[in-house]
Write a structure and sequence with these properties.
It comes from Caballeronia telluris. This is GntR family transcriptional regulator. The structure is a single chain. With 275 residues, this protein is mostly helical. The chain has two domains: 69 residues, Orthogonal Bundle (Arc Repressor Mutant, subunit A); 174 residues, GntR ligand-binding domain-like (Four Helix Bundle (Hemerythrin (Met), subunit A)), CATH 1.20.120. Helices cover 63% and strands 5% of the residues. The protein contains eleven helices and four strands; from the N terminus they run ααααββαααααβααβ. The strands form two sheets. A two-stranded antiparallel sheet has the order 1-2. Strands 3-4 form a two-stranded antiparallel ribbon. A hairpin with a 5-residue loop joins strand 1 and strand 2. The chain is elongated.
Length: 275
């Protein structure tokens, strides 16, 4: 039996990586070893050719692969080459959604994770919130306030997105990069993948919006008082109430793949003037 298994194993062909893929891996190793940061440039194409003893087409294919992964931006011309960029959150979401597309993920699943992470994210942000952050949080709440100010589907969508932006402002102040990334990724999923049925009464949207405004105001007040524990407790309540509203409004996750045309670089959150 052992001999048969050995013979069977010997007949299995090990798939070799293509040369551009191998070069892309070496360039990743180069980025790591040189500790390159966003904005730093890779060696020029001709230098990379000499470094790895490969053709121009192989280098360009390797660079294109890294660009698709979101690690570099490629420019052409005599001095062309790759510049290190920070991987966009939307690109990460796209890859994650490619995986989740084949899984049975529900709104309850998403909010179960939010209930665990968001309270710690918000509490951890409290000591680091600046006056500029509070201006941004207040402007966000003002944008969402006013039960009678919703006119049409676009305004409804904008207000729901602003509700999520509130959490991004808190995330930006939290010094834990992995926790921040995890919460921002979930927020982006909510923005892009949760949709509400067209026949959902406007009154339901208004109730949800006002509930968010009330809890957001309470969170900001506690944060101004530098009461991290109170912020944590309020966020637990918020993350428990929110999915109930979403389900009552017949919200659902769109089971779809995110297109390249939908990928956008996220702008750093700034205080909204007059919004």
């Amino acid at each position: 039996m052992a001999m048969d298994r050995t013979k069977a194993g010997a007949s299995i062909e090990i798939k070799q990586q293509k040369r551009p893929d191998l070069v892309a891996e070496e360039i990743k190793r180069l980025i790591t070893e040189k500790d390159l940061k966003p904005g730093d440039r890779l060696p020029r194409e001709v230098e990379l050719q000499q470094m790895f003893s490969v053709s121009k087409s192989t280098i360009r294919e390797a660079l294109k692969s890294l660009e698709v992964q979101g690690l570099i931006k490629v420019t052409t011309g005599p001095s062309g080459g790759g510049t290190i960029v920070e991987v966009p959150l939307d690109r990460t979401l796209q890859l994650l959604q490619n995986y989740l597309f084949f899984k049975d993920v529900t709104i309850d699943d998403i909010y179960t994770v939010r209930q665990l992470l968001e309270p710690e994210l918000a509490a951890g942000a409290v000591p680091h919130l600046t006056e500029q952050d509070f201006v941004a949080l207040d402007a966000n709440i003002a944008c969402c306030d006013g039960a009678g100010s919703v006119h049409g589907d676009k305004d409804i969508v904008r207000k729901r997105q602003e509700d999520v932006n509130f959490h991004d402002i808190l995330a930006a102040a939290n010094p834990n990069p992995f926790l921040r990334f995890s919460c921002e990724l979930i927020n982006e999923m909510i923005r892009q993948l949760i949709e509400f049925r067209n026949d959902t009464p406007q009154a339901e949207h208004e109730r949800f919006g006002q509930a968010n405004v009330r809890i957001h105001k309470a969170i900001v007040k506690a944060a101004r008082d530098r009461d991290a524990q109170k912020v944590r407790e309020l966020m637990v309540v918020h993350m428990t109430e929110a999915p109930r509203y979403v389900k009552r409004m017949k919200g659902k996750l769109r089971g779809r793949l995110i297109l390249d045309s939908e990928i956008r670089r996220r702008m750093k959150i700034e205080p909204a003037a007059g919004s």
